[in-house]
Specification:
The chain is mostly helical. Helix content is 72%, strand content 4%. The longest helix has 32 residues, at 175-206. It is globular, with a radius of gyration of 23 Å.
Length: 251
């Protein structure tokens, strides 16, 4: 099981309705994207982190492991905003407002990343997917996502087993052996995933599959008090950001 899924199942917010957590982190995400980058994005990120590390008890180490790769991608993309290509100052030159735009894009992306990761760390995908059809999403799309999600764990386990077997046979002792073993690993995983998908399709057909997967969804009441509590942080962030933006400058 992935660290995100393990934290979502073990966390104290596991029993909350996904609509409550979606309202909280979705509202903060909207604030991060719509409000001024400063201080809107910063306040949205702080509110999401406070809710996640506080009452939701998201493991900080697991959060950092999940956030470092997309954060690196955000920083890499922001660096390109610092320069201009083909302008009047030469083929490659520093953009006049590149630092401001890079900081704005990085701040919004980092805040959005915090909101999305905190939602993922508190909401198991198995609780969310069956309820998406009620929001109007096509059932076929939801089923494809659910099957892909379930197959992901099978493929990860298969990959680990094959890699361990290759390592036991000194398949990674040198660079050439590493490249050869990596190619064999990809080929073996592809063949096994294709075979697994074929067997799953046959199994569904033998069970009378008619185009829809019927799953048991635990009904959880959505309490109005919980929705109000989830709406409060995004509203406070919006009010604080707008108030900071219209406050008169000193002097």
């Amino acid at each position: 099981m992935l660290a995100i899924d393990a934290a979502a199942y073990r966390g104290p917010w596991r029993r909350l309705h996904p609509a409550v957590k979606g309202t909280l982190f979705g509202g903060l995400l909207v604030c991060a994207l719509v409000l001024p980058a400063w201080p809107g994005a910063a306040l949205s990120a702080l509110a999401a982190l406070a809710a996640g590390f506080g009452p939701a008890r998201v493991p900080p180490r697991a959060f950092l492991r999940a956030a470092w790769a997309p954060s690196l991608f955000v920083l890499t993309g922001a660096v390109t905003l610092l320069v201009s290509v083909g302008g009047p100052d030469g083929p490659v030159a520093w953009a006049p407002d590149g630092a401001r735009r890079a900081a704005e894009v990085s701040g919004r992306a980092a805040a959005a990343l915090c909101c999305q990761l905190m939602f993922a760390f508190t909401t198991p995908l198995a609780d969310l997917l069956p309820r998406l059809t009620r929001l109007g999403l096509p059932a076929a799309l939801v089923e494809v996502v659910a099957l892909t999600y379930r197959m992901l764990f099978v493929l990860l386990d298969t990959t680990r087993r094959i890699q361990a077997a290759q390592a036991g046979r000194l398949g990674y002792r040198s660079r050439a052996a590493w490249i050869r073993s990596l190619g064999a690993l990809g080929a073996a995983v592809f063949v096994r995933s294709y075979d697994r998908a074929r067997r799953m399709r046959r199994g569904l057909e033998c069970r009378g599959y008619d185009g829809t997967l019927t799953v048991l969804v635990e009904e959880r009441p959505v309490r109005p008090a919980a929705i109000v509590a989830a709406v409060a942080p995004p509203l406070l962030v919006a009010v604080a950001a707008l108030a900071a933006g219209i406050s008169p400058s000193p002097g």
